[in-house]
Specification:
Helices cover 24% and strands 28% of the residues. By secondary structure, the protein is an alpha/beta fold. The strands form five sheets. An eight-stranded parallel barrel has the order 2-3-4-5-6-7-8-9, surrounded by five helices. It starts with 27 loop residues before the first strand and ends with a strand.
């Protein structure tokens, strides 16, 4: 049936920075104080915008009183599902021309949207609106729209119709489009499929997947040209490694049930084109029940597995990661089937369901499918549950934990890139892991959700493994920031420093209990090893310089209020400096019981 949801801007919380100055970076683990974290999160991060998905025939003629009623029930928006596009099963056209008269019969639907000002009246009440179309061609029994390799059909029909729908949605004030890609009954029965091995296909799997990705890019390109910054909601998008596939395995004994599906390829193409503000996927596997286990077990599995899979599968995950939201799709009223599956559940059951959706939904939204329109069912017993679900609040105050595995502190010879990896965990689910180098470059890590113990009945003990195998480096010090973000926008940050082409000795002293490796030539007596410049935050925490041992001791002084401490370690003196403010500091080093001359070095703090 259908789905929808919305996003609020994600918030980052509890950033902890650690600069690695040892010869090998220690493992860093984020274990935020729960009470402090809860006190810090005050902005609502619930999915409290309840969007109703309904046929447009039941929406266009809503009166102001009807809109007020739905608003009072907790409804914050409506997806107005139109249906098939013209020449693909529908009879209506769209246009983005504000001067168009819309007098022709093929524009009667857009004319009614304009004349009733339904979108404007919804927006005046703080309600959001999406214009829905079907990604189905009633006349094509092979593939969803036109045959994937039919260039003339795509360029001459599908893409122009998509562009017109987006332009009309922008003109009328919709927040964006909603796609229904469920393959319902077609002419002369069922036939079309989202699988790569469709009827009469003569191409390889790789060729079909590449073509589906191309079509996705073409569709999003025309959408963003017609409606820059649009939001795109979608229902019935099925992907591997999700709760839906696990249900197919446990309930129907179908392993890898979605392996042939092209949804991931088509949406890879869609999400790779920059210019949209949000993609919102609505998951209808949660219409009526979680099928197994609890809502929390099912949703945690789905979110962690899905986002790990997307991080490895989407070609422009760096752009899509912060713009792609997933929310569960409920179905409160009863459906048409004689079985129990689509029966309306008791109000107390629905209240628990909607509370879980409010807690787990992303981007501030989740959706409910209204079968048969808005007036075909008595929602009054469910109003309190709907109102509670649409009340903003803090549902998550715990930032995710982050572990960065040990990496070298430097390399004597310049490297082109550095591999960094680690693990992450969250009380809900991990959405993404990002990296950024202060010398240039940023990106996202590939993630894999790893179950350590447990199952779908009892819950999971898990962690997310992440890897950024090729972080580009520049010569000199590279400060690399790693950030993990959960599905509610809470984040934890770690920082490592890599001396590229300088070598570990130029950054730090040897670890305790070890001796410096011998060089091919003897060290000069009294040689000083240090960096000439440090950032202020680092300088305040403390920086180290090494002095080759000479005499019986070493005296060190620093000007401008800096503090200094000297200790002996093997063949070295380790001088630790704490420098409180920006500027140049003069450090004077005087040996005891050896050469009488002092040495002075200058360290700059920026």
């Amino acid at each position: 049936m259908d789905v929808v949801k919305r996003e609020r801007r994600s918030r980052r919380l509890s950033r902890v920075v650690m600069v690695c100055v040892a010869a090998w970076t220690a493992v860093s683990i984020a274990t935020p104080d729960t009470a402090a974290a809860q006190a810090a999160v005050t902005a609502p991060n619930s999915a409290d915008r309840l969007i109703i998905w309904s046929d447009c025939a039941h929406v266009v003629d809503l009166t102001d009183a009807s809109l007020d009623l739905w608003k009072s029930r907790g409804v914050d928006g409506i997806i107005c599902m139109h249906g098939h596009l013209r020449s693909m099963g529908g009879k209506q056209d769209f246009t983005g021309d504000p001067q168009a008269s819309l007098a022709e019969s093929n524009y009667s639907f857009q004319r009614s949207l304009r004349d009733t000002n339904i979108v404007g009246r919804m927006r005046a009440r703080g309600m959001k609106a999406y214009l829905g179309v079907k990604l189905v061609n009633y006349k094509n029994r092979r593939t969803p729209l036109r045959e994937w390799f039919d260039d003339a059909g795509w360029w001459g029909l599908v893409l122009p119709k998509m562009a017109d729908a987006a332009a009309a949605a922008k003109l009328l004030g919709f927040a964006g489009l909603a796609f229904n890609q469920e393959l319902t009954r077609q002419r002369n029965g069922y036939g079309a499929t989202w699988n790569w091995d469709y009827q009469n296909n003569t191409h390889s799997e790789a060729e079909v997947r590449a073509k589906a990705t191309q079509r996705g890019r073409e569709v999003m390109s025309v959408l963003t040209r017609s409606f820059p910054g649009l939001e795109l909601v979608a229902y019935h998008v099925h992907m591997p490694e999700t709760w839906r596939e696990l249900v197919e395995l446990k309930d129907n004994n179908k392993g890898n049930a979605l392996a042939k599906n092209l949804d991931i390829d088509f949406w890879d193409g869609l999400s790779s084109v920059e210019g949209y503000s949000a993609i919102r996927l609505l998951d209808s596997i949660f219409y009526k029940s979680p099928y197994a286990g609890t809502w929390d077990i099912a949703l945690q599995y789905d979110y962690n597995r899905r986002y790990s899979y997307l991080s490895r599968r989407l070609s422009n995950w760096n752009y899509a990661a912060s713009r792609l939201f997933v929310s569960p799709f409920s179905w409160i009223n009863a459906g048409p089937n004689p079985g129990e599956y689509d029966d309306a559940r008791p109000p107390a059951y629905v209240a628990t369901q909607l509370a879980a959706f409010r807690r787990w939904g992303m981007g501030g939204e989740f959706a409910n499918f209204a079968y048969g329109g808005l007036s075909a069912f008595d929602y009054s017993p469910y109003v309190s549950a709907m109102q509670a679900a649409s009340t903003p609040g803090v549902v998550d105050a715990s930032p995710p934990a982050l572990v960065v595995n040990p990496v070298p502190a430097g390399s004597p010879t310049p490297l082109a890139s550095l591999a960094v990896e680690g693990t992450a965990h969250d009380n809900l689910a991990v959405r993404l892991v990002r990296w950024q180098n202060d010398r240039g470059g940023s990106g996202t890590a590939r993630m894999t959700w790893e179950v350590l113990s447990g199952d779908y009945r009892t819950g999971y003990n898990w962690r997310t493994r992440w890897s950024a195998p090729t972080i580009p480096l520049q010569a000199g010090a590279n400060n690399i920031t790693i950030t993990v973000e959960d599905i509610k926008g809470l984040a934890t940050t770690r920082q490592i420093t890599f001396a590229n082409g300088l070598g570990p000795r130029s950054l730090a002293a040897p670890r305790a209990g070890t001796k410096p490796r011998r060089r091919s030539r003897p060290l000069k007596v009294g040689k000083v090893y240090h960096r000439a410049r440090y950032k202020l935050a680092r300088a305040r925490r403390g920086v180290r310089i090494r002095v080759a041992r000479v005499g019986t001791g070493l005296k060190a002084r620093v000007n401008r209020g800096g503090r200094v401490k000297v200790r002996s370690r093997g063949r070295w003196y380790i001088v630790t400096l704490k420098l409180p403010r920006r500027g140049s500091y003069k450090v004077t080093l005087t040996p005891r019981g050896g050469p009488s001359q002092s040495k002075a070095i200058v360290i700059r703090v920026v």
